[in-house]
């Protein structure tokens, strides 16, 4: 039976082809739940036709604007199974706010944050069986917006499709923390100040792929990007922000430069660190200084921060033909932060920051 939510989202019935969540561990981002959220925007009607219906392919005219000029944005956030069987979202408001900042940068329409959050909550509630129960597992939620004008003219689209899909995810580190190695690229850049680096838009990722592939062939896991102007200052690594631990207790991460994505995990680490007994600061970090401090042992740990891995220890940094080995990987600070943050995300310890949004399962018959 069709019903409507408070924010006017139509919930459509599922057809007979609904699948049960698979018992075996899914490969990340390849299996999706039965349903998806969609709504459309036009100048005449604003956002309309909000609905959660069966997951299905999109039919797009080959001349649809997004396919040509990449006017698109996306987000990534997760739902975590709590020990009491209910489900937590982690700082979903920050995610919606970033989605709207990305929309603004890409000349797209902003969404109503309340409606976007309700769409996520309803989708997760309807698909709660797909939120896995295993250690480190989660349901990855991927909001997207694309320009849908059918036109080859280069201008901001006058129509958009906003949709949200969800994919069960296994633990990032299935056999304990596995440190990642990074290669510092001074040949290619990801984003430039004044460009789109602070927005979560596909073009940034497309532009990073060639160098990512090259460094994989060189035997490194990820690219560490430098600033595009001087190629001197550390920006971020792969799809993560990066942090360095000085003297075992001072966490330093590159300051937001306009070309770095403002990570929710990064912000959580900065806010959490003092309560766990660490100093935390943001600074402009020159790569030469960082590598010198890794060699001298003044930097005791390096780690990436992002929704996928939460904390990813870095053991090796390659730069201009030389490898620099980090003293501790994983080190005590990375392990402490990982445990504390994931305990909050999964609702295993109290959340004094108000970061979690609990979705009650089995209440009012759903
Ligand atoms: C380029 C980039 N930097 C940093 C991050 C980390 O952000 P968050 O902690 O919000 O996942 C991501 C992932 O979303 C990313 O794609």
Bound ligands: pyridoxal-5'-phosphate
* CATH class assignment of the largest domain: Alpha Beta
Order of helices and strands: EEEEHEEEHHEEEHEEEEHEHEEEHE
| CA-based gyration radius | 21 Å
**Major β-sheet profile:** 10 strands, mixed
Q: Estimate nothing, just give the exact number of structural domains.
A: 2
Q: Tags for this entry?
A:
single chain; 366 residues; alpha+beta; D-amino Acid Aminotransferase, Chain A, domain 1; D-amino Acid Aminotransferase, Chain A, domain 2; 2 domains; 30% strand; globular; binds pyridoxal-5'-phosphate
Structure description:
This protein has 366 residues and is an alpha+beta fold. It has 2 domains: 3-171, 2-Layer Sandwich (D-amino Acid Aminotransferase, Chain A, domain 1), CATH 3.30.470; 180-345, D-amino Acid Aminotransferase, subunit A, domain 2 (D-amino Acid Aminotransferase, Chain A, domain 2), CATH 3.20.10.10. Helices cover 22% and strands 30% of the residues. The chain is built from 7 helices and 19 strands. It has helices spanning 66-69, 92-105, 113-126, 202-217, 264-272, 287-296, 332-345, and strands spanning 3-4, 10-11, 35-42, 46-54, 72-74, 77-81, 87-90, 138-147, 159-169, 180-185, 222-226, 234-237, 241-246, 250-254, 279-283, 299-306, 310-319, 322-325, 356-359. Strands 1, 2, 3, 4, 5, 6, 7, 8, 9 and 19 form a 10-stranded mixed sheet that branches. Helix 4 (202-217) links the parallel strand 10 and strand 11 (222-226). It starts with a strand and ends in a 7-residue tail after the last strand. Pyridoxal-5'-phosphate is lined by residues 76, 236, 239-241, 261, 263-266, 305-307.
């Amino acid at each position: 039976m069709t019903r409507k939510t408070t924010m006017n989202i139509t919930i459509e019935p599922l057809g007979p082809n609904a699948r049960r969540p698979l018992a075996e561990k899914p490969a990340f981002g390849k299996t999706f739940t039965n349903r998806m959220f969609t709504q459309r925007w036009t100048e005449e009607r604003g956002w309309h036709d909000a609905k959660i219906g069966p997951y299905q392919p999109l039919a797009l005219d080959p001349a649809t604007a997004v396919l040509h000029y990449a006017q698109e944005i996306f987000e990534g956030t997760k739902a975590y199974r709590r020990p009491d069987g209910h489900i937590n979202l982690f700082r979903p408001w920050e995610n919606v706010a970033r989605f709207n900042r990305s929309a603004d940068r890409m000349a797209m329409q902003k969404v109503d944050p309340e409606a976007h959050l309700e769409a996520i909550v309803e989708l997760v509630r309807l698909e709660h069986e797909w939120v896995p129960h295993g250690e480190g597992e989660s349901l990855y939620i991927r909001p997207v917006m694309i320009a849908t004008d059918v036109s080859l003219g280069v201008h901001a689209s006058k129509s958009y499709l906003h949709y949200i899909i969800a994919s069960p995810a296994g633990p990032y580190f299935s056999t304990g923390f596995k440190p990642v190695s990074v290669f510092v690229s001074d040949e290619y850049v990801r984003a430039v100040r004044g460009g789109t680096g602070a927005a979560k838009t596909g073009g940034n990722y497309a532009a990073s792929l060639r160098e990512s592939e090259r460094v994989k062939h060189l035997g490194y896991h990820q690219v560490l990007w430098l600033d595009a102007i001087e190629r001197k200052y550390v920006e971020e690594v792969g799809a993560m922000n990066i942090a360095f631990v000085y003297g075992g207790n001072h966490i330093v991460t590159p300051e937001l430069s306009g070309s770095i994505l403002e990570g929710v995990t990064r912000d959580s680490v900065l806010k959490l660190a003092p309560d766990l007994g660490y100093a935390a600061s943001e600074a402009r970090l020159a790569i030469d200084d960082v590598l010198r401090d890794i060699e001298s042992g003044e930097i005791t740990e390096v780690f990436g921060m992002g929704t996928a891995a939460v904390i990813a220890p870095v053991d090796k940094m390659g730069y201009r033909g030389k490898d620099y080995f980090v003293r501790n990987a994983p080190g005590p600070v990375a392990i402490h932060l990982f445990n504390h943050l994931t305990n909050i995300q999964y609702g295993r310890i109290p959340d004094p920051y108000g970061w979690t949004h609990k979705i009650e399962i089995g209440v009012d018959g759903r």
